[in-house]
From TrEMBL:
This is Simple sugar transport system ATP-binding protein. Keywords: ATP-binding, Nucleotide-binding, Sugar transport, Transport. The keyword Amino-acid biosynthesis does not apply. It comes from Pseudarthrobacter enclensis. PANTHER family: CARBOHYDRATE TRANSPORT ATP-BINDING PROTEIN MG119-RELATED, GUANOSINE IMPORT ATP-BINDING PROTEIN NUPO. Residues 506-531 are annotated as: Disordered. Residues 506-521 have a biased composition (Low complexity). Residues 3-239, 255-499 form the ABC transporter domain.
Length: 531
């Protein structure tokens, strides 16, 4: 099936999310939409899938104009979509989720789940999905849940499959398995629209690449294009994808976590008996798939988790049980994972957001009164130092782009003497240029001698910033390993495999792969398959 988008424009009030976009997806093609978060990729696919009505433009299927009023009409035309956030009901079985909205019935109107089970088994066998139709979705690993979403689309005879940021919640091994599934779907004649901002995966899987920036198509690229070329196309200027940093010069261990346990409202341990240290001048990166206790860990350190046991000490002072204000006053700089919800007050000015944790202290306050001139001067200096793009420090911080909002948070947290710096998902939603800036500031704080803890689900970011890597799985510490640890080993650890076992397994796999390559590769082609 050939899919064409012609002049697709989508406006939300004065915001133009998609601006006259043209796109052609050929049968049996993996067409990647590459662009930063907020570039308009997902909006475009939601228009295609019938979730949004286009303001202008048309959609053609096999040369014929079509109008999709809802996703049901898009699915009936052979278009399926796997959303970034899965649309599954956790307490339903796989078969029940697949049947939902596409029910077949037996006599007396009873649901015919056996027919659905048989379809699931057939598709699972065809593509090697290994999915049990009777398994409860809430018991399945994230990677298998994603396969259920793909099965839902294939059961409805999808010829074009849209995958929206499909690797965002996957381990490296699960990502590799997904890419293999996409290749098989392609061999069967399916067309894939692969939406991503991850250059490694785009280069590995795409037949052609369309780059979108600020709602517009800015060019087509070949998968052979270098990562630097693709990154530059995404942001509109030359950027560096490598972080130059000197080896860490570590000092004494000043931050210690011992037997930390956080219990949720159901009595479950979301952080389970966690212990680790961070030395001065060191970056410890916390790696893991989202939802394995990272958020609760950082919140426990900050003092906002109510049910916490264990010990958290900074320079010998116990922080557990202390208020957020006390923890920040003890010299902890904190960048939360959701800057708009926890890091900023959108209606406050940039100047006001720069002093949210210092508003009652000199030089910004005298007695019960604040000093507006000093506050504005402080903001002006920090806006220049952190390259915050704004017409005025009196502008509401909510009017800034995501990258500039993150710079405001960093400017505030790094503008005072710190004894510990914690940044959770520090570059989420940022363009490549902003990521480059944030990484440099993190390393500068490390080199200043501050213990640094980074929490990130982006493995590339972990490997760039870390001096050591701690991997969490279901709230427990799988292991702490050097930053030189391979992606394969880290991926296995992120799936819960202990460090020593992961190292042995990855080594055995690499040895087997090398032997196979030596037998099957023609002479003179070593390494051509690697990205």
């Amino acid at each position: 099936m050939k899919l064409e988008l012609k002049g697709i424009t989508k406006r939300f009030g004065s915001l133009v999310a998609n601006d006259h976009i043209d796109l052609v997806v050929e049968p049996g093609q993996v067409h990647c939409l590459l662009g930063e978060n907020g570039a308009g990729k997902s909006t475009l696919m939601n228009v295609l899938y019938g979730l949004y009505d286009p303001t202008e433009g048309e959609i053609l299927v096999d040369g014929k104009p079509v109008v999709f009023k809802d996703p049901g009409e898009a699915m009936a035309a052979g278009i399926g979509m796997v959303h970034q956030h899965f649309m599954l009901i956790p307490v339903f079985t796989v078969a029940e989720n697949v049947a939902l909205g596409n029910e077949t019935t037996k006599a007396a109107g009873l649901l015919n789940l056996e027919a659905t089970r048989e379809k699931i088994r057939r598709i699972s066998d065809q593509y090697g999905f290994d999915v049990d139709p009777d398994a409860m979705v809430e018991d399945l690993p994230v990677g298998v849940q994603q396969r259920v979403e793909i099965i839902k689309a294939l059961v409805r005879d999808a010829e074009v499959l849209i995958l929206d940021e499909p690797t965002a919640v996957l381990t490296p091994q699960e990502t590799d398995e997904l890419l293999d599934i996409i290749r098989q779907l392609k061999r069967d004649g399916k067309s894939i629209v692969f939406i991503s901002h991850k250059l490694r995966e785009v280069k590995a899987i795409s037949d052609t690449i369309t780059v979108i920036r600020r709602g517009k198509v800015v060019g087509q690229a070949d998968p052979t294009a270098s990562p630097t070329e693709l990154a530059s196309a995404m942001v509109g200027r030359t950027v560096s994808l490598t972080l130059d940093k000197a080896p860490a010069k570590t000092g004494e261990v000043t931050f210690k976590v011992r037997n930390l346990t956080v219990t949720d409202h159901n009595g479950q341990h979301v952080v389970d008996d966690l212990s680790f240290d961070i030395a001065k001048g060191e970056v410890l990166a916390i790696a893991g798939v989202q939802g394995n206790g990272q958020t609760e860990l950082t919140e426990a350190i900050l003092g906002v988790q109510p049910h916490v046991a264990g010990s958290i000490t900074l320079d010998g002072e116990e922080l557990l049980g202390k208020s957020v204000k006390h923890v920040l006053g003890a010299g902890v700089g904190f960048v939360p994972e959701d800057r708009t919800l926890d890091g900023l007050v959108g209606t406050f000015t940039i100047s006001e957001n720069m002093i949210l944790d210092l508003y009652d202290k000199a030089p910004f306050a005298r007695g019960v009164g604040m000093k507006p001139g000093v506050i504005a001067d402080n903001a002006a200096r920090k806006v220049e130092e952190f390259d915050v793009r704004t017409p005025s420090v009196s502008a509401a911080v909510g009017t800034l782009s995501g990258g500039n909002q993150q710079k405001v948070v960093l400017a505030r947290e790094l503008s005072r003497p710190l004894r510990l710096f914690i940044a959770s998902q520090p570059t989420r939603g940022l363009d490549v240029g902003s990521i480059e800036f944030v990484h440099k500031r993190v390393i500068a704080e490390r080199d200043h001698g501050t213990p640094v803890m980074i929490v990130s689900t982006e493995l590339d970011e972990v490997l760039q910033l870390a001096d050591r890597i701690a991997v969490l799985y279901r709230g427990r510490l799988v292991g702490i390993v050097p930053a030189t640890t391979s992606r394969d080993v880290l991926g296995l650890m992120m799936a819960g495999v202990p460090a020593a076992e992961a190292e042995a397994s990855a080594s055995a796999h690499a040895s087997g792969a090398t032997t196979t390559a030596a037998v099957s590769e023609p002479a003179g082609h070593e390494g051509e398959s690697h990205v």
